[in-house]
Design brief:
about 200 residues, mainly alpha, two-stranded antiparallel ribbon, two-stranded parallel ribbon, about 45% helix
Length: about 200
Amino acid sequence: MYIHFLKRLFDLIVALCALPFLIIAICIIGPIIYFDDKGPIFYKAQRIAKGGKAFSMLKFRSMKVNAPDIRLADGSTYNGDDDPRVTKVGKFMRNTSMDEIPQFLNVLIGDMSLIGIRPDPLDWLDVYNEREKVILTVKPGITGYNQAYYRNSADGALKLKNDVYYAEHISFWLDCKIVLRTIKTVLFNENVNIDEERK
């Protein structure tokens, strides 16, 4: 009952409650992003949704316009402290996870959940093995096991392993633990950037 009904109900309630704060954030952060380099406020990242479909994940734009897509050897996205693609306001938003706020709209629409697997780029569909495809039965989340415990410090293989674990063990109590851990991770600014050894 939790997975098929209560989880979605909880998503809708929280997303609706977050809407006023999202509007305020757009009014305050939006002009700062725009006047930093005269680019768009939002960034629409193409990601894998439940069932393997594609969806546009909304974020406040933290990179310069037309910044190149840099990947590590394992296919994961590069997130370094010295990343020249990131704008000044973008660095602050990433450190505080404020760039993720627009994803509450994705939750409201139904593309995402508050808690789920990490949203993978579309080309990762070709990476999943048969067991890992279990993650396609779960909606991507604003936060999740990976985001809460590792944020950007885990490599692609560990992220997939953690997503499989979550997909196979979804429960109300696991989601509660993830929420509490996410708060700690964000407040203490843990694991913001990728491990230097993985560059």
